[in-house]
Amino acid sequence: MRAEITKINRLLVEFYGVPKRQIPLPDPLDMLIATILSQNTNDQNSYKAYQKLKDNYTNWDELLSVPTLKLEKQIKVAGLAKQKAAAIKNVVSEISQRNSKVKLDFIKEFSEEEAIDYLTSMKGVGLKTASCVLLFALDKNVCPVDTHVHRTTNRIGIVKEKTPDKTFTSLNNNFPNRIAHEFHTNLIRLGREICKPNNPICGVCPLIKICQYDLKNFEKKELGKKKDFMLLDNIE
Asked: Which of 2, 45, 96, 131 has the lowest CB atom count within 10 Å?
């Protein structure tokens, strides 16, 4: 699998280039809250909700005393406001109770397994959310698996799994060194622009020669002009 991933990554980089990283890396708690807001919505709306919180609060400690209903209204644009507000409130509360302050800096010293175990022990934080914190904020060589990564890796044939969490485990079991960020980012772009859930544009896919998807659509369509690709690590 390592050789397959390395080859696929090379083809994606040739097609899309090497994605830029945010320098310096974002704060781990910033990234955790941003990732919770990003669930089941688009980048623009999740960013608006995140920025609304940053504009209204000087630090995350203030969320401890904010009524959940008020928080729901502030993040409404991101969708699923009730669930996300509850998750964010729970996260800041648990971190505060466990560490006496609302900070996540200490997980920088954790191993990948320890960091994932710690983050997923909090209600509202799943494996995908935790792995995004590791990749984008801690620069760990971990590839998060969202619906796009799950779909594309299974179609290509790297893994054969039924759920994103199982795909995550299989994919990250022996992942090549130092390519997780570009591999993850470019796969998401591939999933959004070409390897779509319905009517994929296989005729222009850079992976068409090695992809094992049985229902390839060989009709060639011209892709639209490339736009700036928003990612979680655009969040300041």
From this structure: 2
Give, rounded to a whole angstrom, the gap between the first and last alpha carbons of the chain.
Answer: 34
Question: Looking at the annotation, which residues are catalytic?
Answer: 128
Q: What length does the chain have? A: 236
Q: How confident is the model at residue 212 (pLDDT cuts 50, 70, 90)?
A: very high
Q: What is the pLDDT of residues 148-187, one digit of tens each?
A: 999 999 999 999 999 999 999 999 998 999 999 999 999 9
Rounded to 5°, angle at Cα 201 from 195 and 205: 70
User: Locate tokens 């060194």: which residue?
Assistant: 177
Answer whether the bond into residue 176 is a cis peptide, omega within 30°: no
Q: Using the structure block, give the residue that is written with the tokens 């945010």.
A: 22
Long-range CB pairs of 116-120, under 8 A, 24+ apart, other chains included: 116/142, 119/32
Kindly calculate the radius of gyration of the chain based on its CA atoms and give it in whole angstroms: 18
Asked if residue 132 lies in contact with residue 144, where contact means CB atoms within 8 angstroms, the answer is: yes
How far apart are the C-alpha atoms of 36 and 34, rounded to whole Å?
5
Q: How many CA atoms lie within 13 A of 157 on its CB side?
A: 12
CA 186 to chain CA centroid, nearest Å: 12
Peptide linkage before 24 cis (omega within 30 of 0): yes
Q: How far is CA 59 from CA 56, 64, 92, 143, in A?
A: 9, 10, 11, 29
